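Hi there,

I know you've been waiting on this one. I reran it after we fixed the sequence typo, so this is the corrected version. Both the input and the resulting structure follow.
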Amino acid sequence: MQQNPIPFLDLVTPHIELEQELTEVFQKVLKTARFIGGPMVEQLEKNFAQFCTAQHCCVLNSGTDAVRFALIAAGIRQGDVAFTVPNTFIATVEGISQAGAIAEFIEINEQTYSLDPGNLKKYISEQCTYDSKSKTLVSKRWQRPVKAIVPVHLYGQTADMDPIMEIARQYNLTVVEDACQAHGARYFSKKENRWLTAGSIGDAAAFSFYPGKNLGAMGEGGAVTTNDAAIDRTVRMLRDHGQVEKYIHEIEGYNGRLDALQAGILDVKLTRLADWNSKRRACAHYYTEKLSASKKIVCFREPSWAESVFHLYIVRVPNRKEVQRHLDNEKIGTGLHYPIPLHLQKAYTHLHYRPGDFPVTEKSSAEILSLPMFPGLTKEQQDRVAAALTAAVGG
């Protein structure tokens, strides 16, 4: 009997389930003609800030703009250096460079695939100097001031933020969380002895509402969350041509607004997000249960300080190309996140990195495979995925 395909991601079912509520959003926009700004945008900002336990939220047209605007609003200027990781989507570094800054990469942790605080501390001690008079960290690589850290909360799990924040405060660095894959992820701060939500830990945070995210629009979208009123005010000006009110331009800005229709759609979906995240966690734990026995499959694991929302469920496998081909033949969708690290991309040859500069990133990028992951994934489907994957790697 021919089996039905298992998609990598199911964007159809949740929209069908929410069809009536989403249609009502469209009808409201249709009848009021409030296409830009207005109550729907304001309501989403209020609700998403509350969801992230942040004081402020400004919604935007993309996660890329969220990174860029957050950095600019936090005071990052032309020629400043920002530390981040090479294992992320290019939008992280686009946001840095489009803010006028220079991205300088730090090696990831082999267990979490996110910024390694130990590597960050070591890199600063060996590859930077600190001017105690001006309280400025200077990159030896660029002979430019280091002003920011952009840790990436990858695959739905936060980076280890306590030591990152400690390093940032020691050297007077701004921290902008790239939380584009981490809507609702939590981090246990030993310093504060409580769980913190992604988007409320750094000086600001960037979110993406691209359709495939845990909270996705029916189009493009993004947001900046922050507990700093000045950052929030500047981001609001940046998204709307630098206006503080109509035709009053305090700075030169951009057109980075989120449509009211998308805001309304996102606000409907936000009411389901906690449940969807819970279902993703259950799916992830079932995958780990089914796959852990294999000696050839390295499963993604949560450290004690993380509560992931599993935007992706990744494994590391040998002979990835052959494994992916086998799963494709079994009609099982998979993804690669990310096959070529940013330091080896043609777009960043001007940063002068070479193969071998980040061995952990390079090794993991050749082995990581993303399995089907969405809230409606069934155990029967996961059993098929696990069986096919185990067969593909040879046990």
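Quick highlight: The radius of gyration is 21 Å.

Best,
R. S.
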